[in-house]
Amino acid sequence: MVISQESEIIESVLALGNHIGHTPLYELQHISPKKSVRIFAKLEWMQFGGSVKARPAYNIIKQAVLNGELGNGKILLDASSGNTAIAYATIGARLGIPVTICLPENASWERKMLLKGLGVSIVYTSKFGSTDEAQEKALELYQNEPDKYFLADQYGNENNWKAHYDTTSEEIISKVNGSLTHFVTGLGTTGSFTGISKRLKEVNEGITTIALQPDGALHGLEGWKDMETAKVPGIYDPSLADRFMNVDTFDAYETLKLAAKKEGLMISPSAAANLKGALQLAEEIDEGVIVTLFPDNAEKYSEVIKSLF
Ligand SMILES: Cc1ncc(COP(=O)(O)O)c(C=O)c1O
């Protein structure tokens, strides 16, 4: 059912906030190389929508509903290759907001079926153009029919990083405040790194923030962007990183297996890459508390998982 009354949709969007975020901060007890270095990860698949992207998608939709840009029959339009599209789709289905996604045609079969099942209209773009081309297509559709669409623009929308500034960082602080020494995560839209680092630095400027990058343009870490070669997101603020580290895809896949066997977690390639970054860092420091994110679990990556086990 499409909720048409303005007050009803505002009520529904605010109520949905209870199911976004509030994810566990899980200690990796068996794979830290030293007892004096503790490593924690936010299990971000444990929320409505099933990934870290529920937070920015929800905040973008909430702000647009509150200021009247959505909820009046307008279609939410954006480019995404995965988690953000699924997050928009689940939230859109719940609130009766139609969603159109520009998606590179090489997205996995599972992604396409999930989005179709959730009622999304998909506009396919070339497999050679990645999400950069999908972004250009979304902009073109919007410019042709601005009254039909709300362009969510996750790469340039300040409500992306603000979601993490307001929620993810506060959840981390409430659990490890005082002891946290390092925060490390990979860059995609850069919303999670930007929002969390900004807030953590305000609380304690001594916390070291480390941004992770793939070791080249061609990599197997879905959700990550190589900032040297990709279109740089409008919200990206490189000055927030004290340091950059590279993670090799093969090493990430080995870490994925380790996390399954030693910690009981079946995580996604990008979550494993974050863990690999945290482990590399743990080798270098004598003591500390490292926090990272596990953006999603392995469920949507059957092709990768099949090749590993
Ligand atoms: C699986 C996965 N990992 C990492 C990221 C990167 O997060 P962010 O966009 O906040 O930089 C994303 C974002 O789409 C993702 O879907």
TrEMBL record:
Task: Give the keywords, sorted.
Answer: Pyridoxal phosphate
Q: Give the GO molecular function terms.
A: transferase activity, transferring alkyl or aryl (other than methyl) groups
Q: Give the SUPFAM superfamilies listed for this entry.
A: Tryptophan synthase beta subunit-like PLP-dependent enzymes
One GO biological-process annotation of the entry reads: cysteine biosynthetic process from serine
Q: Which residues form the Tryptophan synthase beta chain-like PALP domain?
A: 18-296
Membrane-crossing segments per the record: none
Spell out the InterPro entries in the cross-references: Cys_Synth/Cystath_Beta-Synth, P-phosphate_BS, TrpB-like_PALP, TrpB-like_PALP_sf
| Names of required cofactors | pyridoxal 5'-phosphate
One Pfam assignment: PALP
Q: What is this protein called?
A: Cysteine synthase B
Organism, as annotated: Reichenbachiella faecimaris
At the highest ranks, the source species' classification is:
Bacteria, Pseudomonadati, Bacteroidota, Cytophagia, Cytophagales
